[in-house]
Design a protein that fits this description.
about 250 residues; mainly beta; single chain; six-stranded mixed β-sheet
Length: about 250
Amino acid sequence: MRVIHSAYETGKAAGSLSEETQPRIDFPPYRSSILRHPTKDLRHTDPETIELWSPAFGHRDVHKLESDLTIQHNGDPLGERMIVRGRVLDGDGRPVRNQLVEVWQANSAGRYIHKRDQHPAPIDPNFTGVGRCLTGDDGSYEFITIKPGPYPWKNHHNAWRPAHIHFSLFGTDFTQRMITQMYFPGDPLFALDPIYQSITDQKARDRLVAQYDHDVTQHEWATGYTWDIVLSGSNRTWMDTEEDDK
C-alpha cells in the first residue's frame, strides 16, 4: 500500500526509536527544502470562510471521461499507454469514498505544459497531462495516461527527476488537500534524486512505487500499474509540501 502525510507532518528525528517514515523538511541535498515548509507558527483558519473563495467539487462537476488523459485532444499522445489503478484507504484499511483525486505529469519526453518548463524536450500537442476522478464506494480510482519521462530540474549539476505522477487528494474540506508522487519500479534515478532520498526509511520509499500488474494490463492496448494511497496510520503515504514541486 502507498501512503500520504499532511502538509506539515514531519518524520521522527534521527536517532529516534521510531522509524523515520516521512521526508526531512530540511534536507541539504534538496536545496529548496528549507523554503518548502512553514517557518512561523500556524494560524487557525475557518474552513467555511475559505470555502467561500475556493472551488466546489461533486459528482456533477467531475465527468467520468476526465480520468482518461489520452482522449483530451484530436489525436493519440506519444508514449507508452498505461492504466493506473488503486484505492484510497484510511489507516484501518477502510475505503475513502467520493474522494476527489487529481493527477498531473510530464509527457513521455519529460516535458510539462508550463511556461517554467523550457528544457529542450518536445511538447506533445495531444497530451496536456492533467486529469481527475472521484473514488468509488470501495475507494477505487483509475486513470488512463501515458508513462511520463524523466526531466532535468536544476537542483544540482546533471540533476534528473525519476519518472513520476503527481497525485492530489481532497478530504471533506478544501483545507484538507494532500499531495504526493507515484514512481515506477526499477527507476535508476532513485539513488540520485534528493526528493526521493529525503525519505530515509526504505520501506516508506517503497510505498511510493507503483507495482506492475498484469491483471490490469490490457492485451495490445496498455500496460497496467496498481498503487494504493493510505491517508493515515503507520503505513500512510508520503505527501509533498507544495503542489507545484517538480
